[in-house]
Amino acid sequence: MWTLDGWDQFLTFLAGTEDILLLVLRILVPLLSLLVIVQCFRSVRRSRRKAAPVVMLQDITTDKKIPVLYWENSIGRSKSCDITVPDGTMSRDHAVLMRREAGWEVIDTGSKSGTRVNGVKIKGSHMVLPGDRLTFGSTTLMLIRAEGADSRTSTDPFRRIPSPAGLLALVVLIHLFLAVEACCGTDPWRPEAFLLFGLLALVDIFFYLFCTHVFGHISFEVETVGLLLSGIGLFLQTSMSFDVVITQLVALVGGICLFTLMIWFMGNLDRVNRWRKYIAAAGVLLLCATLVLGTSINGAKNWIYIGKFSIQPGEFVKIAFIFGGAATLDRLQTRRNLTEFIIFGIACGACFVLMHDMGSAAIFFITFLLIAFMRSGSLRTVFLATALVALGLFMFLQLKPYAADRFSIWGHVWDDVNGLGYQQSRTLTYIASGGLFGVGLGRGYLVNMPEGNSDLVFGMLCEEQGLLLSFIVLLAIVLFIFYARSDVTRSRSTFYSITACAAAGLLLFQTALNVLGPTDILPLTGVTLPWISAGGSSMMAVWGLLAFIKASDERTYAARRKSA
Amino acid sequence: MRTQGWRSLTLYILTGLFILGMGVFAFRLGTQGASWAMQPYNRHLKTEGGTTQGGGEAVWAGTIVDRDGTVLVESDDGERHYNEDSSVREATVHTVGDLNGSISTGIQLQYRAQLLGYNALTGVSGVTNNTEGSTIALTIDSDLCETALQGLGSYKGAVMLMNYKTGEILCKVSTPTFDPENIPSDIETNDAYKGAYYDRTLSVTYAPGSTFKIFTSASAIEHLTDWGTRTYSCMGKEIINGNTITCMSQHGELDIREGLAVSCNIYFADLAIDLGAGNMTETCNEMGFNRSWDLDGIPVQASHLDLNGATDDQIGWAGIGQYTTEVTPYHMMLTMNAIANGSSAVTPHIIQSITDANGSVSQPDESRITLLTSDTAAQLNDLLRNDVVSDYGDGNFPSGMQVCGKTGTAEVGGGKEDTAWFVGYCQNPDTPYAFVAVVEEGGFGRSVAMPIIVSLLQQLA
After folding, report:
1. A490-499, B207-216, B243-252, B356-365: least confident range
2. Could you give phi then psi for residue A236, rounded to 5 degrees?
3. Interface A-B: count of C-beta contacts within 8 A
4. How confident is the model at residue B63 (pLDDT cuts 50, 70, 90)?
5. Nearest Cβ partner of A512 from B21, B36, B122?
6. Is the pLDDT of residue A154 over 50?
7. Residue B146 has pLDDT above 70, yes or no
8. What is the three-state SS of B104-172?
9. Which residue is closest to A98 within chain B, CA to CA?
10. Which pLDDT score is estimated for A264?
11. The pLDDT value given to residue B54
């Protein structure tokens, strides 16, 4: 008899310690996640090229040497040029000297006096080799190699870069912990969580091996953070149902494919320049198609049903929008006006307003401002656009008073907890209920709310996984801004710089709307939290946006250049 | 590309705004988290009766009991219930607090997080996910509170009594009061309920009248070497700077001992003028004026004394507890506590213990607040004991308690009756009680405020 008693006691003991064990996991997961995120960021910072010139330009009359610091350099007498030559016969923005795969090229950007290479006037872009003489106006510069070129390969033994495989292993471990949480948090247990872990681990490892061995990439930081966040999102969705999780997992694989495809596509800037217009046009067409064929869910007509599958085309148009807006430096210098981009922006914005998708409209507007300013530096454009949109919003609210409701309840959600403030008050209550470490996966109640696992998912993340992990997820998204910013002048083209900044800004703004809307700091708009919210289209699009950030890292295309 | 580098700094504006927004969110969560969590629809808060989570519409929180375990408020069947006796409810509502949080110093509001089992770190889930609120035991005795409420009758006022050896507040009542189970519909409009949401023991200041002569005496003991022999002569009234200070009768020549016993206004007005604004302010600030307190974390209004630029007549008025002098009943009791303890007051407590769901009990820390020197305390003790022996009469109090005290009758102006005070303590260490009673528009302290304290002491005898 006592053996049975002993067994019972053992089971009781296990049941007693189970909650403690799960709490320990809920503390470990955020700490390990923070480690991964910080190490990935340090890895990016440490492997950055030092700001040393690869080539120089030497004035043949004065012998003065001018360092060439960037992959694309504007040359002219304007102070804003990367290479400023005080020569009255030069145009303000005379030409662009840029590094492409085949070597250095120079292109005249509509100068008055033209550009000559070795005395011959050029049309379009022209290859330049060391020793070639470039004539702008009355100034002649010779391209020469910098002494001690390629100094960037010299590695400082004290600046050790964390092992990408090690960081990925840590991510897989975090996913395992999340699987234990998802399995044991509920009664009865859900062993399916371990199946999910198995599949996710396969995705993690295959993606890594593919990038390093097939693509020959030497860096994996951005992808590691993406996989970490995707895993946190996937396991959070187990609280909803495993059907949702399967959709998310498929979308994750799709997103990774899109990421890989975009990295390949953006490897050739000529190809990008050729296709840019078509991608932009396809984006607008897709939005128009949504307007015509779309289905309305929760008041926003932004879904297209194809058989059993539903997609939100608006998510993919974000990628097209960024493609359409960015350009290489030579194009920025020759086509200065933003008219085409403004028309493109208005077309997209109008479509979203007609769909009643105000969240997406706001995201496109902020992205538009970011790109427009990166391209033109014109504050006037920014102010004008903001004023126009404010006017438009005002008129919209006059015409559609129901849309004003979400503005009227803003800041007063506790006055109407069962009416207009329903979603916000529940979100706040369940965030506060979760505390620092959450109540545990599968033990939350916000998931039962409409849109609880998408628009209100920040609340759900806080409730079940705790404030600590939620803030670390946000930190990861904020750090993408710093990734993008640190690569702006080091990337291989302004195209990459602009797309990366636009993508990072878009992700952050979308995050801000998702987090600050339901918590009543901003008016509530229904947008998803990148990587975390349920939604296949969103998951795929987010990985597509991540590709922009990845592409602006000059190491992304480094290995291929070496082998070529 | 350099220009793009500069322009990309705009991203930091976006980032900064986001971080600012998150800061606002974190601040609100820290300050309002408990009220966010304590919503009736929160399914993490289970009902008392139910064993499973998902209480639905339950208003759930822990129980509050008095020192004898009498339930003052508890949750049952998803509803919050107060004690079944309406006079207990009315006598304790200011301490316990109402359900709407209108009484800002109530335990239910101030200790909401503990009652809920909420804290910012673990939310509503404890380490092992059981969402049980704590039971709070108060130091008050609900029977004693009922007696004090009866004593106050239809007057507005405050009564508080504590054990000065242990720091426990045994009785704490504020009127006008109301029944939290049946809140009067005219509570906002009816003058009889004016200020019903204020706990007058903690949140309201009164002109101290003659009870302030204790502080004037303390200042004399500390600053005048001849304080024990110094005499003034009382002619019933005295004109200072053209301003007349009146006395109840013509006391003639008297010293401080006689002056305090008969509560001679002229004596203490002249004494205050001789002490001067500097000495008066110094002593009063040492004894806790112009300083806010907290009672187990519940904020207490500061007593007020400001003699900056006061003329002689104003200092004279201040010396007898008029002018702009204002005192909280809590502060007055704290002073009695300090004198009874011979310089340091034992910090008063209203919380006896908080027992959380896991059975772990927390109690307030014992500490002391020094308000005056032991010599001053001993001399004041002697003076206050003399008041009762020579004037109020030991026979009016339960025998053997050796009560020390001072009455007060403060003018409030505006055609209103005077505010009646009685403050003091029992010298006998077997009945270590310090007390205060204030009755608005009550008239004489001796005839209105003192009997309330007597009835409490009789019950404690």
Report:
1. B356-365
2. -65, -35
3. 151
4. confident
5. B21
6. no
7. yes
8. CCCHHHHCHHHHHCCECCCECCCCCCCCCCCEEEECCCHHHHHHHHHHHCCCCEEEEEEECCCCEEEEE
9. B1
10. 92
11. 35
Cβ–Cβ contact A531 with B under 8 A: no
DSSP, collapsed to helix, strand or coil, labels residue A290 as helix
Q: Which helix (H) or strand (E) holds A261?
A: helix A242-265
Please, is B430 exposed, middle or buried when counting C-beta atoms within 10 Å of its C-beta (0-12, 13-18, 19+)? exposed
Q: Is A487 on the interface with B (CB under 8 A)?
A: no
Calculate the alpha carbon distances from B71 to A449, B80, B137, B443 in Å: 37, 12, 9, 36
Determine whether the interchain pair A435/B43 forms a contact, defined as Cβ–Cβ distance below 8 Å. Answer: no
| Average confidence score pLDDT of chain A | 87
Q: What is the mean pLDDT of residues B72-98?
A: 86
Residue A32: pLDDT band by 50, 70, 90 thresholds? very high
Which residues, other chains included, contact A394 with Cβ-Cβ below 8 Å and sequence gap of 6+? Answer: none
CB contact under 8 A, A521 and B128: no
CB contact (8 A) between residue B119 and residue A435: yes
Q: Dihedral of CA B29/B12/A372/A547: which sign?
A: negative
Distance from CA of A512 to the nearest CA of B (A): 6
Q: Cα–Cα distance between A173 and A518 in angstroms, integer?
A: 32
| Chain B neighbors of A374, CB-CB under 8 A | 4, 7-8, 10
Q: Which positions in chain B touch A366 (Cβ < 8 Å)?
A: 14
Nearest-CA distance A523 → chain B (Å) = 12
Domains with residue ranges and CATH for chain B: 209-349+367-460 (3.40.710.10)
| Rounded (10°) CA dihedral A227, A230, A235, A236 | 150
Q: Does A26 touch chain B (CB under 8 A)?
A: no
A467-514 pLDDT, tens per residue? 999 999 999 999 999 999 988 888 888 999 999 999 999 999 999 999
Looking at residue A160, its pLDDT comes to: 72
- Residues of chain B in contact with residue A73, where contact means CB-CB under 8 angstroms, are 1
Residue of A nearest to B44 (CA): A433
Q: Dig out the tokens for A350 from the structure.
A: 């109008």
pLDDT at A150 over 60: no
Beta-sheet strand order (sheet of A309-311): A295-297, A300-306, A309-311
pLDDT at A393 over 90: no
Tell me the chain A residues in contact with residue B121 when contact means C-beta distances shorter than 8 Å. 435-437
* Among candidate residues B205, B214, B165, B231, the one with its CA nearest the CA of residue B366: B165
User: Strand ranges (DSSP E) for B241-366?
Assistant: 243-246, 252-254, 293-295, 298-300, 344-346, 351-355, 361-362
Distance from CA of B364 to the nearest CA of A (A): 25
Q: What is the 3-state secondary structure (H, E, C) of A495-564?
A: HHHHHHHHHHHHHHHHHHHHHHCCCCCCCCCCCCCCCCCCCHHHHHHHHHHHHHHHHCCHHHHHHHHHHC
- pLDDT score at B58: 34
Axis-axis angle for helices A164-184, A192-209 (nearest 10): 170
* B244 in Cβ contact with B255 (< 8 Å): no
Find out whether B136 and B118 touch, Cβ atoms under 8 Å: no
DSSP string, B177-198: ---TTS--TTTTT-GGGTTTTS
pLDDT at A247: 92
Mean pLDDT (chain B) is 87
For residue A2, pLDDT beyond 70: no
pLDDT at A23: 87
| B365 vs A244, residue with greater confidence | A244
The SS3 assignment for A148 reads coil
Instruction: Check A509 against B14: CB less than 8 A apart.
Output: yes
A512·B17 Cβ contact <8 A: yes
pLDDT tens, position by position, B94-129:
999 887 778 889 888 888 778 877 777 777 765 444
